[in-house]
Fold this sequence. Notes:
Blueprint: E1 5-7, E2 16-19, H1 22-31, E3 39-43, E4 48-58, E5 61-71, E6 78-84, H2 88-101, E7 105-110, H3 121-134, E8 142-143, E9 147-148, H4 149-156, E10 161-165, E11 188-193, H5 201-209, E12 213-215, H6 224-237
Parallel strand pairs: 1-3, 6-7, 6-11, 7-8, 7-9, 10-11, 10-12
Antiparallel strand pairs: 2-5, 3-4, 4-5
Helix pairs in contact: 2-3, 2-6
Amino acid sequence: MKLHRFIGNFYLSKKEIEIINPEIIRQIKDVLRLEEGDVIITSNGQGKSAEVVLVSIAPDKIKCRVEGVETEEEKGVQVNLYLAILKKENFELATQKAVEAGVRSITPIITERTIKTGLNMARLEKIILEASEQSGRSFVPTLSPTLNFENALAFGIASNEKIIFHLGNNLTPSPSPYKGEGTKNIKSSSIFIGPEGGFTEKEVKMAKDSGYTVASLGPLTLRGETAAIIATYRAVYGV
């Protein structure tokens, strides 16, 4: 049976911990209706997690006994998604699914064709946390401050692999750029997804001149959130 996972500021080096976060208490007590003796997983969101037994449940505090602690290391390619700001619901959906697909960080970017620029960062942080819990992650992805396109390129250049996805008539879709010589040594990848309408040719040239690979996700025109999900999955798993 899958155990419910909760991520918070837990000090898992102790034999007993207390849960005082009202939202987590509400989830355990009122939503899931867990009882004393039930087992859950707690995680600090930085690679450490533990199975704990619920010892006592009160309205403002849940006491737990730590049964065993595991420390994980981040595996696979560390994917940094630079995503142009989309309409509210679309950006939130892309964020949620990118986390489930294994993204390591998400940076909203403003491009020449960006229409909406406002984001509820607190809500996005909550979406990232809940998606991390739901998908069983021990590392919570980072939500970075919004950057303009040029600054985003400068940040993304630190990755081993740098890709800007663009729908162009002269680009041949392929299962690359994650296969072939040298890909086994890729530890980090920066991927750029544009807004509705895509990147401008000026932006694509700027990225190419900065050392980015220009790639296509296929001949069909994808919505921004769809492209973000597919590109993240490909980058994480190298498919």
